[in-house]
DNA sequence: ATCCCGAGGG
DNA sequence: CCCTCTGGAT
């Protein structure tokens, strides 16, 4: 089989997966709470190795105390640390939040930049965070958000053989229409939480089981 | 013990 | 590639 038709097969499969997941999760949206692009950026930095539910428990108090980039840039770092502590990695996260906000104030007029390259200059921001902010704050589909769920499900479904998230993203982008890139990530995240869990995937009630090479077909 | 919408450094 | 950063939930 040629590389072109193998990709065609995977593309067909990816589109079928997306169609089914759109039906299963018709109202899937970004589950982080925020009012502004800066707040979404901060919430996304906090979401590293942490559930969104936990992030949403700390951000109301954080944004009440420090509502924008200027406030976070001028904050006492230890106060940020205290407010975000329960999300884990709290010293790095506080430092990155403040560092990113200072750069936003000094270089970008207090607004989150809309260019991928500029976002990647911010401390604590790599492609995953940049993709989330661009897609949900600005409606810009610069890439495919690859978090732990998107990586795991894309691998299990046989759409990538990579484990490095940047390589997973490169494999996924040509398989999906650009306008569906964030739809893909959001639905896979929902499905990863509800069905295709890391430890005990519920293959017996998965609507993608017939398409999935990783499904446990053994009968007990 | 393992995982959660990661990123940076070696 | 590897390791570290960190707390909470299961």
Automatic annotation (TrEMBL):
<feature type="binding site">
    <location>
        <position position="196"/>
    </location>
    <ligand>
        <name>[4Fe-4S] cluster</name>
    </ligand>
</feature>
<keyword id="KW-0227">DNA damage</keyword>
<keyword id="KW-0378">Hydrolase</keyword>
<feature type="domain" description="HhH-GPD">
    <location>
        <begin position="46"/>
        <end position="194"/>
    </location>
</feature>
<keyword id="KW-0456">Lyase</keyword>
<dbReference type="InterPro" id="IPR004036">
    <property type="entry name" value="Endonuclease-III-like_CS2"/>
</dbReference>
<dbReference type="GO" id="GO:0003677">
    <property type="term" value="F:DNA binding"/>
</dbReference>
<feature type="binding site">
    <location>
        <position position="212"/>
    </location>
    <ligand>
        <name>[4Fe-4S] cluster</name>
    </ligand>
</feature>
<protein>
    <recommendedName>
        <fullName>Endonuclease III</fullName>
        <ecNumber>4.2.99.18</ecNumber>
    </recommendedName>
</protein>
<dbReference type="InterPro" id="IPR023170">
    <property type="entry name" value="HhH_base_excis_C"/>
</dbReference>
<feature type="binding site">
    <location>
        <position position="203"/>
    </location>
    <ligand>
        <name>[4Fe-4S] cluster</name>
    </ligand>
</feature>
<keyword id="KW-0004">4Fe-4S</keyword>
<dbReference type="Pfam" id="PF10576">
    <property type="entry name" value="EndIII_4Fe-2S"/>
</dbReference>
<feature type="binding site">
    <location>
        <position position="206"/>
    </location>
    <ligand>
        <name>[4Fe-4S] cluster</name>
    </ligand>
</feature>
<dbReference type="InterPro" id="IPR003265">
    <property type="entry name" value="HhH-GPD_domain"/>
</dbReference>
<dbReference type="InterPro" id="IPR011257">
    <property type="entry name" value="DNA_glycosylase"/>
</dbReference>
<keyword id="KW-0479">Metal-binding</keyword>
<dbReference type="GO" id="GO:0051539">
    <property type="term" value="F:4 iron, 4 sulfur cluster binding"/>
</dbReference>
<comment type="function">
    <text>DNA repair enzyme that has both DNA N-glycosylase activity and AP-lyase activity. The DNA N-glycosylase activity releases various damaged pyrimidines from DNA by cleaving the N-glycosidic bond, leaving an AP (apurinic/apyrimidinic) site. The AP-lyase activity cleaves the phosphodiester bond 3' to the AP site by a beta-elimination, leaving a 3'-terminal unsaturated sugar and a product with a terminal 5'-phosphate.</text>
</comment>
<keyword id="KW-0408">Iron</keyword>
<comment type="similarity">
    <text>Belongs to the Nth/MutY family.</text>
</comment>
<keyword id="KW-0234">DNA repair</keyword>
<dbReference type="InterPro" id="IPR005759">
    <property type="entry name" value="Nth"/>
</dbReference>
<keyword id="KW-0326">Glycosidase</keyword>
<dbReference type="Pfam" id="PF00730">
    <property type="entry name" value="HhH-GPD"/>
</dbReference>
<keyword id="KW-0540">Nuclease</keyword>
<dbReference type="GO" id="GO:0006285">
    <property type="term" value="P:base-excision repair, AP site formation"/>
</dbReference>
<dbReference type="GO" id="GO:0019104">
    <property type="term" value="F:DNA N-glycosylase activity"/>
</dbReference>
<keyword id="KW-0411">Iron-sulfur</keyword>
<keyword id="KW-0255">Endonuclease</keyword>
<keyword id="KW-0238">DNA-binding</keyword>
<dbReference type="Pfam" id="PF00633">
    <property type="entry name" value="HHH"/>
</dbReference>
<dbReference type="InterPro" id="IPR003651">
    <property type="entry name" value="Endonuclease3_FeS-loop_motif"/>
</dbReference>
<dbReference type="InterPro" id="IPR004035">
    <property type="entry name" value="Endouclease-III_FeS-bd_BS"/>
</dbReference>
<dbReference type="InterPro" id="IPR000445">
    <property type="entry name" value="HhH_motif"/>
</dbReference>
<dbReference type="GO" id="GO:0046872">
    <property type="term" value="F:metal ion binding"/>
</dbReference>
<dbReference type="GO" id="GO:0140078">
    <property type="term" value="F:class I DNA-(apurinic or apyrimidinic site) endonuclease activity"/>
</dbReference>
């Amino acid at each position: 089989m040629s590389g072109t038709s193998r990709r065609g097969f995977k593309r067909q499969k990816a589109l079928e997966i997306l169609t089914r997941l759109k039906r299963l999760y018709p109202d899937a949206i970004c589950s982080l709470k925020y009012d502004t692009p800066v707040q979404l950026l901060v919430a996304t930095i906090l979401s590293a190795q942490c559930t969104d539910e936990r992030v949403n428990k700390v951000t109301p108090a954080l944004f009440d105390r420090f509502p924008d980039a200027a406030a976070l840039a001028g904050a006492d770092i230890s106060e940020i640390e205290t407010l975000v502590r329960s999300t884990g990695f709290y010293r790095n996260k506080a430092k990155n939040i403040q560092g990113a906000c200072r750069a936003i104030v000094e270089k970008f007029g207090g607004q989150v930049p809309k260019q991928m390259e500029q976002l990647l200059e911010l401390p604590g921001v790599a492609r995953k965070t940049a993709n989330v902010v661009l897609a949900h704050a600005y409606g810009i589909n610069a890439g495919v958000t690859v978090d732990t769920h998107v990586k795991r499900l894309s691998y299990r479904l046989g759409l990538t053989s990579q484990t490095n998230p940047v390589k997973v993203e490169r494999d996924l982008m040509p398989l999906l229409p650009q306008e569906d890139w964030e739809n893909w990530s959001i639905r896979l995240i929902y499905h990863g939480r509800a069905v295709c869990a890391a430890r005990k995937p519920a293959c017996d009630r998965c609507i993608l089981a017939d398409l999935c090479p990783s499904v446990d077909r053994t009968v007990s």
